[in-house]
Amino acid sequence: MANTAQARKRARQAVVRNKHNSSLRSMLRTSIKRVRQAIEAGDKAAATEVFQKTTSVIDRIADKQIIHKNKASRHKSRLASAVKAMA
């Protein structure tokens, strides 16, 4: 339990930030799933287009330090290689 006014305010801020960051993290996961679904569907043009949008989302979330930059790079690399491997 927060005892000081400052600690109470920080606790309120933490709740708001957690909610915001959770929604961004959810957006990240959804965009990654869309790329994987496009790859499974076998449509390379759609997969490439969705991958470009997902790359933008991944970079934005990494810039905000919601995920680590290396994790962002790993996601982009694996998705790019999967899109590239499509026949």
From TrEMBL:
GO MF, any single term: structural constituent of ribosome
Superkingdom: Bacteria
Name this polypeptide is given: Small ribosomal subunit protein bS20
Pfam families linked: Ribosomal_S20p
Key words, A-Z: Ribonucleoprotein, Ribosomal protein, RNA-binding, rRNA-binding
Originating organism: Pigmentiphaga litoralis
A cellular component annotation (GO) from this entry: small ribosomal subunit
Family statement drawn from the similarity comment of this UniProt entry: Belongs to the bacterial ribosomal protein bS20 family.
Purpose: Binds directly to 16S ribosomal RNA.
GO-annotated biological processes: translation
Chain residue ranges for the region called Disordered: 1-22
